[in-house]
Design a protein that fits this description.
The structure is a single chain. By secondary structure, this protein is α+β, with helices and mostly antiparallel strands. The protein contains six helices and seven strands, in the order E-E-H-E-H-E-H-E-H-H-E-H-E. The chain has helices at about 35-50, 65-70, 80-90, 110-120, 125-135, 145-150, and strands at about 1-5, 30, 55-60, 70-75, 100-105, 140-145, 150-160. The strands form two sheets. A four-stranded mixed beta sheet has the order 2-6-5-4. A three-stranded antiparallel beta sheet has the order 1-3-7. Helix 4 (about 110-120) packs antiparallel against helix 5 (about 125-135). It is globular and about 45 Å long.
């Protein structure tokens, strides 16, 4: 499997770093199978930090080895379980068991407004899920432990001009 990570610098050796905000799947090293999504994220990070340049680091991962060796949580779709998981991570209230690899849909900027309406109580869970089903959500894979990260093999960078 080929995975991409967008940033304002090349990341040849991924690391777990403490996040300064709450993310979909908690703390971890975030990747995606979608190159365009990684390019978009690299551009956002570059604009936000105003240093470096938009760079996508590309990795290979043996998914069968990683999935069988690590504590895995996999979401096939943005369903109720996924919504609850993302909601508790984004609000900093997650208290479930830890996972080393988490794979599933991204609650990206296109989904953010729907997600905010849900978190403020404007939308019910059912209304939120209905809205999410009509959106095209890309997938993300989050590596949440050093063991999980060890399965990532850096191959090259893609630099955006």
């Amino acid at each position: 499997m080929i995975l991409y990570h967008g940033s304002n610098m090349a990341v040849k050796q991924p690391k777990l770093i403490v996040q300064n905000r709450f993310l979909d799947f908690g703390t971890g090293f975030y990747t995606t199978e979608n190159k365009e999504q990684a390019i978009s994220f690299a551009n956002k990070v570059y604009r936000r930090r105003e240093e470096g340049s938009p760079i996508v680091s590309i990795y290979e991962v043996n998914e069968s080895a990683a999935f069988s060796s690590c504590k895995l949580l996999r979401f096939a779709a943005p369903d109720e379980t996924w919504l609850d998981f993302v909601y508790t991570h984004r609000t900093g209230t997650y208290s479930g068991k830890p996972y080393e690899l988490i794979y599933g849909p991204v609650a990206d900027d296109d989904v953010y407004e729907t997600f905010m309406l849900y978190s403020t109580g404007t939308l019910t869970k059912e209304e939120t899920l209905k809205r999410l089903k009509i959106k095209r959500l890309f997938n993300q894979m989050v590596f949440s432990s050093e063991r999980a990260i060890s399965f990532l093999k850096f191959t090259q960078i893609l630099q955006e001009d």
